[in-house]
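Sequence in, structure out. Go.
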Amino acid sequence: MTKEDYLQMKKEFKIRFTIIIVLGIIASVFYIQILLSHSREVPFFITCLGTLTFINQSLIAPVFYEKKAAEKEHPEWKNLSTKGVEIPQEEIQKRNGISILSFIIVIIGFFMFYRPLPTTDAGTEVIKTYREIQSVPENSTEKGSSTVSNLTPKDVQTLQELKEEIESNAPSDSNSLDINKAKDFAEKAQQQNWLKRGE
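Output:
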């Protein structure tokens, strides 16, 4: 190996090492985002690990071992500067192709496995529905309620029965509600179409 070959290899190693560091940082940021959103982190982690292993074995390892072997033969070359050294075009194309492929794999993997958190909690809708049921007027002639519209006397009677059943099932020492029962009542109410939706 000539000194020129060694300098080209040394410069190429620096560039490739920088690429794998940047890819690792991007993969880490994506992984943290996936963890925070409670998405499928294990498949994404395996994808990133496989990609980083691939880029390491195809780009970093061959150049690293050749560079170390040359430095062992010629220790004085270790301190030489790589400024102004031209890298062969075939090495540049190989590096760019593998790097672009690796970045694409990580980005596609992120969008495949990332599922953003829902904007509303499932329990919020149940509590809202429970509050609508609680706000049913005691008298069917009362028209001031903003959450109930076009109720027949039978609907009002059914609502009152549901309200009484909810109150009898709720623990007396707590304001908490059995979420599953509230959800069942809300679904029943929605099926009978006597709650005004969308407000």
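Check: Residues 3-36 form the longest helix (34 residues). The chain has six helices and no strands.
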